[in-house]
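Changelog entry

Holo records now carry the ligand SMILES as an explicit input line rather than a separate metadata file. Below, a converted record for pyridoxal-5'-phosphate, shown in the new format.
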Amino acid sequence: MNYQDIVNYDRQHVWHPCTQEKDHEALPPIPIERGEGVYLIDKAGRRYIDGVSSWWVNLFGHTHPRLNRALTEQAGRIAHHIFAGFTHEPAVDLARRLCALTPGNLSKVFFADNGSAAVEVALKMSFQYWQQHGKPNKTRFVSLTEAYHGETVGALSVGGCDLYRQVYQPMLLDTFQAQGPDCFRCPYGLHRDSCDAPCFEHLEKLVTESQEEIAAVIVEPLIQGAAGMRIYPPVYLRKLRVLCDTCQVHYIADEIAVGFGRTGKMFANEHAGVAPDLMCLSKGITGGYMPLSVTLATEDIYQAFYDDYETLKAFLHSHSYTGNVLACALAVEVLNIFKEEQVLANLAPKMALLDRYAARFEALPHVGEFRRCGMVAAVEMVADRRGRVPYPWQERRGYQVYQQALKQGALLRPLGNVVYFMPPLTIEEPVLEELLEIALKGIVEVTSEE
Ligand SMILES: *Cc1c(COP(=O)(O)O)cnc(C)c1O
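Structure line, unchanged by the conversion:
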């Protein structure tokens, strides 16, 4: 098929994620033929810097020689086999190493194949734990406003982004929602670098009052991604850990987006020095090669399910592709690369480069804030800077920047009025600089008509 054939057949038969398909009338989907490092290359040979790691999954660039080798070597042995009653070395190796790498005493790994499923697993594990642990009234979950934990029905129930959940509201679980941190528009007039997270009071009050009903609190540590890369300080997580201990509530850390080095440390909870009871990982876990997710649990949680068959305490959750061996082999190689190529140590100059651009972005009259956490940075555009007044969402300013950036050879997906950077960790500084320049230019063009 040539470029146009692909576009035409796509328009006839394909339904894309997170897309109003009618937008494709003006901007048809771009057929990608191959990838090379941080570049996506389309069927016409045009190159795009993958500034969002292809939806936050890619860590070391596309067609990475070591990952390609790990994949083909494993495919030469076997691609998939049943994981109930059978096991394999890549899963065991991965599980062992993840338990050692993650904070605290997480000692058991449950496999699934996407982030939403990992969240469903964590919710079900917590729920069933309390059923089997003498506290059957602890059935409800707490999440934060603007949270994002995936889009299957359970995961959506603990989400807080109206955009994704409003229409499905009648289908969703009855959950508690607490006002979360909003550092850019801090109601206390504080700054995230120096505050003590007084905004934690909302969550504290809710959990304290309803602890008898609550199974778990789920949060995205340090960065509420889909909310527009809202960044909040580690002290919030420290308070959360204390609260969960005091009230006998599980702390579920959804590190699906922030895990695997995105925040500058392997896992975001390390910034706070705390450990969750359940932890969800996916996205970067295979370097962006294959769908895979894991839910890690403490020994205490695992033991609540461990008994004679007749007690019917087992965790009866499964997916056809549970523990897929190709994905596990890739994930093992990802951990090898982290270790052998000093990936985290090499991030410092890139994070410094991102910081240097803060002043450039914030000098623009319609940029409200440039914020950064590790290798994630975001620019929030505002109609009026002094009042931090957002542009009306219907104007789709972020989407306009996305279109401008594409013309200049970069993929920068927007989140409302926010344009963010989440490049592969291995992006070279000159390319990162080019990406930032493209974003600057795009934002100037999209915000300077007044
Ligand atoms: C992407 C994401 C999910 C959902 O993962 P999927 O693989 O898209 O189902 C859940 N939580 C967070 C924080 C995410 O970023």
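Spot-checked after migration. The chain is about 35% helix and 15% strand. The domain at 70-340 is CATH 3.40.640.10 (Aspartate Aminotransferase; domain 2).
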